[in-house]
Design brief:
single chain, alpha/beta, 10 helices, 29% strand, globular, 318 residues, six-stranded parallel beta sheet
Length: 318
């Protein structure tokens, strides 16, 4: 089968990759569409030592597996857990000590014609959700994880720093809480997508120091972290919602003095994400920049690296 293979920080299109043979408890999924994520771009830069097929945001059709899933469109949670370690036994499979992660850790990913995942990881896509929209399930779930980790109320002042792909989805999901929300970024054209939905936006210099109860850094860079940190009132909460390629310097003393709560946040709940897509409460159309066939995957990645580009989708059947 064809697939985008990463090795020694070099991405290549291969046509000689064996179709996976799912082990017991897993299903074979024919991939229909997959989205390029910032994590994929960071993997190429060496964020994590990985060799194999990358990609983890996908929708596909089950070809081998339980009868009730055959020929069904599915999306899949990316962490494949062991089921018996201390985290699995505590109901925290995303932190499984023995987990593999689709397209990230010891498991071939979604930028290929086929993939294999545990049956328990798969969720059927509602009929009224398009294949294109379903590709966004994983990042929407990641956005919703914030609300799994803490309760956000109408009276909360919330800042989102970053107007990229994930920041856009986080802003849209947080706006549904009715909180006092401000999204800041560097790209006026991206911020306009949110402003069109009635979400208040601005540039970083519009942030008032110590005004916000909660701030979310979606940038993965020191400048974004600094903006999110200075915006917080004492006893505020800082949520880190992006992977940092390098080390981050911070003023730990100020975190102590202001009694700041720091929360790391990544994977999230798929069923609520599918519900938001089914009820059209999240707009994904404005985030799609272009579609590419898998055969042009290398060109797609070059486009995804371009400043200002939002979501690039790879279509396996084009």
């Amino acid at each position: 089968m064809k697939g985008l293979w990463l090795e020694n920080n070099q991405l290549q299109l291969r046509t000689d990759i064996p179709i996976p043979e799912p082990p017991p408890g897993e299903a074979l999924v024919r991939v229909l569409s997959a989205g390029i994520c910032n994590t994929d771009l960071e993997l190429i830069k060496g964020y994590y030592p990985y060799t194999g097929i990358i990609g983890h945001e996908f929708v596909g059709v089950v070809e081998k597996g339980p009868e009730q899933l055959i020929n069904q469109r599915v999306v899949g949670e990316i962490n494949a857990a062991c089921g018996y370690c201390r985290f699995c036994l505590r109901g925290q499979p995303t932190h499984c000590e023995n987990r593999t992660v689709l397209g990230i850790v010891n498991r071939n990913g979604a930028f290929a014609e086929y993939l294999s995942l545990p049956i328990e990881n798969l969720h059927i896509v509602p009929e009224n959700v398009s294949t294109e929209a379903a590709t966004f399930t994983e990042p929407i779930a990641a956005a919703l994880e914030i609300q799994e980790q803490m309760q956000i109320c109408k009276n909360d002042r919330v800042l989102v720093v970053g107007d990229g792909k994930l920041g856009q989805l986080i802003a849209q999901t947080l706006a549904l809480t009715g909180c006092e929300l401000l999204v800041v970024g560097r790209h006026q054209d991206k911020l306009e997508h949110l402003a069109a939905r009635g979400i208040k936006t601005g540039l970083a210099d519009s942030v008032i120091d110590k005004y916000f109860d909660i701030s979310v850094d979606c940038t993965g860079n020191p400048e974004g972290f600094s903006t999110a940190r200075r915006a917080l009132r004492p006893r505020g909460t800082l949520i880190l919602k992006s992977t940092y390629a390098g080390n981050l310097s911070l003023d730990a003393s100020s975190l102590v003095v202001d009694e700041i709560t720091l929360i790391g946040s990544r994977c999230g709940p798929f069923l609520p994400a599918l519900e938001l897509l089914a009820t059209e409460k999240v707009d994904i159309q404005s985030l799609i920049h272009a579609h590419y066939p898998l055969s042009q995957g290398l060109e797609a990645f070059e486009k995804a690296k371009t400043k200002g580009v939002l979501k690039i989708l790879l279509e396996m059947n084009l």
